[in-house]
From TrEMBL:
<protein>
    <submittedName>
        <fullName>DUF1471 domain-containing protein</fullName>
    </submittedName>
</protein>
<dbReference type="InterPro" id="IPR010854">
    <property type="entry name" value="YdgH/BhsA/McbA-like_dom"/>
</dbReference>
<feature type="domain" description="YdgH/BhsA/McbA-like">
    <location>
        <begin position="3"/>
        <end position="51"/>
    </location>
</feature>
<keyword id="KW-0732">Signal</keyword>
<dbReference type="Pfam" id="PF07338">
    <property type="entry name" value="YdgH_BhsA-like"/>
</dbReference>
<dbReference type="InterPro" id="IPR036275">
    <property type="entry name" value="YdgH-like_sf"/>
</dbReference>
<dbReference type="InterPro" id="IPR025543">
    <property type="entry name" value="Dodecin-like"/>
</dbReference>
Amino acid sequence: VAHVSVSSINTNPESIIQLLQNKTEASGAHYYRITSFHIDNQSHATAILYK
C-alpha cells in the first residue's frame, strides 16, 4: 500500500488518470483508488496504490 499525489497543468481529467496509471505500473502495484480529485486552474489527485 502506498499513497501518491499527482498534479497537471492540464485540466483534462483523463490526463490525471493517465498519470495515476503510470505511477501504478511503475510501482508494481495492481490497482489504485482515488481518494481526492480537484480541478481548478490545474488538476490534482491523490490515490492509494495496492499491490
